[in-house]
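User: Could you write out the 3D structure of this protein bound to flavin-adenine dinucleotide? I've included everything you need below.
Assistant: Certainly. Input first, then the structure.
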Amino acid sequence: MRILVSGAGMAGLSAGINLGALGHHVTIVERAGHLRVNGSPIDIRGDAIDVAGRMRILDQIRQRRVTMTARTRFVDAAGTVLAELPGDEVGDSEDDIEIPREDLAHILHAALDPATLLIFGESIQELHDDGDGVAVTFLSGREDHFDMVVGADGMHSLTRRLIFGPEREYLRHLGFYVALTNLPAERGGEPGNPILNWPGHMIGITRYRDVALGVMNFRSGWIDYDYHDLEAQKQILLDAFAGHHEWQVPAILDAVRDDPELYFDSVSQIHMPGWHQGRVVLVGDAAHCASGLSGRGASLAITGTWFLAQALRAHPTDLAAAFRDYEDNQRPHVTRAQASAGPGGDLVVPATQADLDMRNARLRAAADH
Ligand SMILES: Cc1cc2nc3c(=O)[nH]c(=O)nc-3n(C[C@H](O)[C@H](O)[C@H](O)COP(=O)(O)OP(=O)(O)OC[C@H]3O[C@@H](n4cnc5c(N)ncnc54)[C@H](O)[C@@H]3O)c2cc1C
């Protein structure tokens, strides 16, 4: 089949590998001009580890594994440590491989079949499923026809909007926004992951290898903005943290201003009753984002695209049956992951000063035992 994949994130690249391995002719279009490799380390967990083995990328993933040994420390405005997260609240285990997002992206990219076409700076503009195939008009004006389209274009998926309708029907905002920015000036700095809180806000530094990232979270109701407008995202973030000149806040906000690759998004989930229609199918966050609070987005991207490829192999002439198979196999993983995205926000971004004081007291008491 000629298959179009929209998006070259973890799900799109995994789809490319798994569908290419079956001999399909895969074209991937990525809206950005390059692989988007920023972000904090992500987890490969549970069944995704087994699937990564079958995809023959597990050894490389293990080689690039990072162990986040540095403790997360909650500090006050002067940088004095108030409380510390114990190791078990950081969630490190044998069933969980942590790998920098850029490393996983490069491993997946390198594992694509050489015949797979990856086009940067391109996006679907229109889709028309005529039953025999899907006619696609691209943003560049190019037109083409595919046997199947895979929407792997993330939480704010365009493919989902074009085929299944507006995002608001599927997106559940969990009440937080998150941002990550590169801190080049902090490279190779003191080990440790300090976090400063004030009610409804956290700002901190997270480190792995010699990389340092500024991490910001704040509580907020839904904010309408253009997802493609980086300056609008920066302004929302700068407004949310305005008026704070203590600790490292000014340096982190300066990094936000200068960062051409800032990651900013709402902490949200996507809930859909089904992930396919006709010849179009959704994978990864586009179908079932569980939010960063679950720590399972990359794992779901890997298992889902594997299940999809196996289902197509089992039903080579019946797309509807293949898509149903894919959904049946993937759904339990998604349900578990989405349910697990619970209390992390309250721990790291307490809503009130009383909650903040209670958290710190609880962590100090636990450390004394
Ligand atoms: C830059 C970035 C940083 C991230 N950092 C973190 C993090 O630190 N922690 C965390 O838990 N999760 C992070 N995520 C989300 C995480 O990658 C996903 O939850 C998970 O890996 C599932 O991946 P996905 O491929 O479904 O979605 P995504 O990783 O969001 O990938 C979607 C891809 O589709 C592309 N795309 C979007 N629209 C179009 C379009 N119209 N046409 C073509 N391509 C399009 C995007 O540019 C992106 O490359 C980040 C995502 C991105 C894009």
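Residues 319-340 form the longest helix (22 residues).
User: Perfect, thank you.
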